[in-house]
Amino acid sequence: MDDVEESLRVQRIEIAGQIHDQIIPPLFAARMQLEALSNKLRAAGEADKALNSETVQAAVDRAAEFVVQSMMAARELLSDVSPPRTGEHYWQQQIELVSDLLSTHVDANGQPIKLEISGDFPWDTLPAETSIVVTNIVTEAIRNAIRHSGANKIDVSIASKPQQKIEITDNGTGFDPEAIKSNHGMMLMKSRAKSIAGQLKIDSQVGGPTRLTLTWQT
Q1: Cβ(69)–Cβ(26) under 8 Å?
Q2: Cβ contact 126:91 at 8 Å
Q3: CATH assignment of 89-218, given 3.90.78.10, 3.10.129.10, 3.30.565.10, 3.60.15.30?
Q4: How far apart are CA 212 and CA 50, in angstroms?
């Protein structure tokens, strides 16, 4: 076996492993969630009883999030096989993933959560590594707001003058920043900001709103 064949063999094994570990499990979990819900609905129907709508909604939301996890893993795998051509392409990929997650959540009134993005990156001046780090910080902040804030609106504002700055603001319930200093997700985002000589500032309070501000120098 020559070097090319061996390289392809190793790559196939790696891809198979990622499919087995990251894509199939959440799909299986979604299937189990839906099957359990189906059984509950059937039992309620046979007993001529209505199943609590909150129970149904929670089960459907959970199944949908499992599917989204699988989609995210699949897209990340595709990105590994065929890397993004540019920082802008990577940003668009990740925003699509965020939109997938957004579609599985509603606000307290059952309405879709609004995500508004204003401004744009000067892609031609951003190093590829910087654009990827910035994208990862922003999309992680959006995902946190979708999952945990209880917000019905998330705003992302991008400015490039006098310095690069992105603000992610949600109108959710907020939190005490002191209480999450050791939170792994927040520590990771701050670490990523430092890797591009940037700073991540968190402004929040119980009752909201919450604003994350990322700044860095080009």
Answers
A1: yes
A2: no
A3: 3.30.565.10
A4: 43
Residue-by-residue DSSP string for 66-111: HHHHHHHHHHHHHHHHS--SSHHHHHHHHHHHHHHHHTT-B-TTSP
3-state secondary structure string across 119-182: CCCCHHHCCHHHHHHHHHHHHHHHHHHHHHHCCCEEEEEEECCCCEEEEEEECCCCCCHHHHCC
Per-residue confidence in pLDDT tens, the chain, 218 aa: 566 677 677 778 878 877 887 888 889 889 998 999 999 998 888 888 888 888 888 888 889 888 888 887 887 777 667 666 678 888 988 888 888 888 878 888 888 899 999 998 888 888 888 888 899 899 999 989 998 899 999 999 999 877 889 999 999 999 988 887 777 778 888 988 999 899 999 999 999 999 999 999 76
Instruction: Kindly list the domain boundaries of the chain, sorted by start residue.
Output: 1-83, 89-218
Phi and psi angles of residue 139, each rounded to the nearest 5 degrees, phi first: -70, -30
- Residues 6 or more apart whose CB falls under 8 angstroms from that of 94 comprise 135, 136, 139
Structure tokens at 114: 């609004």
Closest CA to 67 of 121, 3, 24, 8: 24
Asked whether 172 and 209 are in contact (CB, 8 A), the reply is yes
* Burial class, 134, CB count within 10 angstroms (exposed 0-12 / middle 13-18 / buried 19+): buried
